[in-house]
Amino acid sequence: MTEREHPEQYLDGYAEILTEVSATGRRLTRDEIASRRALGEQAAEAGHGLRALVSAHLTTARTAWPGPSGSADDALAAVQQVIDAFAEGYERAQLVAVRQEEAARREFIDDLLYGRSDLGRLAERAERFGLRLSHAHAVAVAQGAAAYDEGAPVPRQVERALISRFGDRSVLLTTKDGRLLCIAPGHQDEVLAYFAKQAHAATDGGRVAIGRPQPGPGGVVQSYEEALGVLELAERLGLDDPVLRSADLLVYPVLTRDRQAMADLVAGTLGPLTRARGGAQPLLATLTAYFDSGCVAAEAARRLSLSVRALTYRLERIHQLTGANPADPAHRYMLQTAVIGARLLDWPAGDV
Known about the structure:
Blueprint lengths: L13 H11 L5 H16 L4 H14 L8 H43 L4 H10 L8 E7 L9 H14 L5 E5 L2 E7 L3 H14 L4 E4 L8 H19 L5 E3 L5 H6 L2 H12 L10 H12 L4 H8 L3 H15 L6 H16 L8
Parallel strand pairs: 4-5
Antiparallel strand pairs: 1-3, 1-4, 2-3
Helix pairs in contact: 1-4, 2-4, 3-4, 6-7, 10-14, 11-12, 11-14, 12-13
């Protein structure tokens, strides 16, 4: 064992304590215990391994073993006290270091996802956590029935699966606002796909949204916001797909970009449905099922638990009220867009 592995400075005064304690039978004083704790903290901060340091203490104890006038029991009691105090200080320093690392990591993640830090400084800090922000990155966000915190069983389970499959791939797994997040290089789509699979299973059927790869230091927050937008969209539209990609749903942000125009389309196209017996909701549900089933009447009727004849009657009633025929390709696009808008604007439950 070399001096580098257990420098003499961390054993300072130890042999003298053993010699005196074995001769007198006294216990270690408060100051002596405090000095051992301090040396343990210093050793941990310097990066020395605890096993080597304990071995060094035992080696010194053998060298200073009491002679005929000393008590072996007293010497062993002193060794126990010294090592206990030393290990306590060592563990305390490690705990402080871990908490500081966790705090720095959380601060970095908050700055990264809110885009509120200097981009150059953010890129420098990112390398400490395995991210190279000069490259494009994509973010996947998993949301389950429960909220998830850093270190909880579900995030640990997903992290173990990712590490086992991909090892060190410059991937950052974390939590934010009760959701699981995976940040990966934009060209490594297989990482996000595997994360989505594992997160869906671990969250008992939770939903996962994947943002598009975005370049540069600000790309992570853009992809993250896209993924959050997809989760919100899925909730409003009642989408039941377990994994949703922002790239596949780009039409919806386009449709909602001009909210007033969409509200006018919904009110002008579907407003007359409110005159139907039972209100607009049953007929709106009919249009939704009809369009979602590819305009196949038999499939739409099955989804609504109706006969085909009853479904056909509803479609005719919609035509009478709105003047637009769902079966006519010339009218279909306007009606389908209005139905999507109604779902996005929560009509007819709310005013538009």
